[in-house]
Amino acid sequence: MVSVCFYFQVHQPFRLRKYQVFDIGRNHDYFDEAKNRQIAEKVANKCYLPANRIILDLIKNTKGRFRCAYSITGVALEQFERYTPEVIESFKELAKTGCVEFLSETYYHSLSYIYSKEDFRRQVEMHKDKIKKLFSQTPTVFRNTELVFNNELANYVEGMGYKGIIAEGADHILGWRSPNFLYRAVTTKKIKVLLKNYKLSDDIAFRFSNKGWEEWPLTSEKFAQWVNSANGNGEVLNLFMDYETLGEHQWEDTGIFDFLKQLPWEILRHPDNDFVTPTEAIKRYDVRGEVDMHSFVSWADIERDLSAWIGNSMQKNALKELYQLESDVLSTGESKLIEDWRKLQTSDHFYYMCTKWFADGDVHRYFNPYDSPYDSFIAFMNILNDIVFRIRDIEPSACSGPKQKEADYNARKRAGRDYGENTAKDAGKDDDTSKYDGKDDDAGSYDSKTRAKATLSATGQGKGFLISETPSRLLAEKKR
Amino acid sequence: MKVLMFGWEFPPFNMGGLGTACHGLTKGLCNQDIDVTFVLPKVVGNADITSSHVNLIVAENINIRSLKLRAVDSPICEYVDSASYSDAVRNCLEQSGKTSQGSVYGKNLFEEVRRFAEKCRLIAMHEDFDVIHAHDWMTYWAGKKAKEATGKPLVVHIHATEFDRTGDHPNQLIYDIEREGFHAADKIIAVSNLTRNRVIQHYGVHPDKVTVVHNAVEFTTPPPDAIKNDDKVVLFLGRITIQKGPEYFLHAAKKVLEVDDSVKFVVAGSGDMEPYIVELAANLGISRNVLFTGFLRGSDIDRAYRMASLYVMPSVSEPFGITPLEAMRNNTPCLISKNSGVSEVVSHCLKADFWDIDMMSNMMLATLNYKTLHQSLQENGKREVYSFNWNEPAAKCVSVYRDVLNRHYNNR
User: Fold this and answer.
1) Which domains does chain B have, with CATH numbers?
2) Is position A146 annotated as part of the catalytic site?
């Protein structure tokens, strides 16, 4: 008996625009709206919509014998809602079939587990809520950003109540053992680990259209044969890949959609085969071995480690500084600022800073908005400096209580509407503005002070304003 | 295979990138077992002209009875690269009032170019070789004459077009010579895609005829010791001419100084735009932070790079541009114009459009303030620059030679 378990990763980051030093303190708009819209629309038409259609047809035509799982990041869902609502609708339709499982992950596709377990937990909760709201499902299987995984993480995620977790079936972990069974991490009691069969997954994801590959062209019959050959020495065959493989990384003219349409029928031809979702696999199969992953493993590059995101000093500095700001950002209580800070956590921003194969002309990522890793670092650090500017602008004094802060915040907004063009723009965009209006009586006493502040920020940086590669220190110095 | 090569300068008698490139290329060719005879007009003083890897002929020293030499009073006292030549000629033009260009040129530079061509024709008739290879317009007549006299195939190499040198205001006579050279050639080698496109676009040359061979750079000596320096220094190093974009440098400097007035901007070089640029600095109110060093040579150049936190090459048009590689070798991060040949082959530097003052000043401020950026550019840049060598471009030249030779003999 072989059960095939498909899980597709759906993700689009909020790409940053080329934010300049001169924007600091003047413009708090970090994201490249036009580019994000354009990419969302393009990928929706090339991949998400046609692929969802095919999956839906397969589920219906096989009477539910074909089933699969998705993990869709919160930032991708947000962009679909904003730019291509029809994609949300088509996923909702899939959810209604009962044959599609949605996995759990961080809302922002972040590396927060490594830097802040508290924010990691919050982002996972946010994502869970979003999935529940849209698809009426509560996920029970967790997948971390880029399949970043180790013993400690498995233990932590088990503590959060999950039944299963997804990881890369990397050779240096498994050795001679097969990924086609369920495993248990040595640090956990019950949570089951599903390991990606990277060979068969990558045959579709990376090699499908490679004419230099000896197995090209890959037909559904051939692939089904490979699946059958696991019969007897495997129980669950995990095919995990980016959803964008279908139609975007492998274009329609490679025949990828025809392959997808036929594959389930070819696999189901063998009476011992079937399809499962991760939760079904966990229910049906027992753990057959232990894995001991002390250091972090991911599904990226040949190294299967964190070096694509935390490999060079720019990436390390940017990540460190970003998370140093956590308590300062959260204590402002300003939702827009917190949201922006979290969107900066999306792992893609650090992937763009990767210099590993840059000199060989290797394009490290589809849709990379930058010409070079240096450009992406500059934009990112400038934005962090602006985040600090905003924190300083909001905090009238380091010791003010939450109520006073809120009052200050509202007063500032009103002042901003009167005087500061940029502040006014921000306030106008913020949905929360209206509910505070008119109910804050003690705001008036701060008015003159905050007015002055707003004017200052409206005139911009002024001579001698600081930009720093350790912006968090600017805040610490101020408090001292 | 034997190559007869015509050049205008050869180290140590060079003032520009052309001589350096010719030296590197011939060295690379030597490694490919190609015999190169290199002809150049003359050398200054009594310097030792023996070069280890090429057979160097100095046209001036050749006495051939059949050639009558005319004495000319030339404004050029030193063998400089083509662009400085035109600068000098332009100065000469200005001094002599607005006379017609033709007559002034005819009196000096063109006369000299023609005389060199005549000598090269005679040299070609006495030398044993398979292919002629001519570098830049000053030697194109020489190449053409040699081809006419011997029937051997001609490859012309373009390091900079007249459009690059003049900011799209070409001198008609120079343009005509370039065009003549391109059309007389069996094959053209351009130093970058940028230059190749110009040749196709402006000179009516068929794209198939132009091959790109990027320049390289070879550093055999270890880089000089670092100079410890906490000042924020941004360096411009190059001729102060329209081609190199010095005014964009100053406008970007102005924006940087509005944020951080502790930054020093150093302009190293000389050129026809110098008075204008000095005045521009004053008009922008940034004279206090802009230092002019004049023309630098030898170890002073290395020292200038090493003192700088960032080297900027804001060229309006740079067919190749070797200076960023020199800066990287000296551990200095670079910000270069996208409109340059070197940006086609170098990854570990910052790149911007020369006209995008905001982006350039943004990048300057970032490099001066974000230490990890500065360090990453230094480390990766140094590794990258030491990976360059002339063997690859030389091998590409050899395949161009083979190509023209094949066609040459098939057509006979």
Assistant:
1) 2-216+390-410 (3.40.50.2000), 233-385 (3.40.50.2000)
2) yes
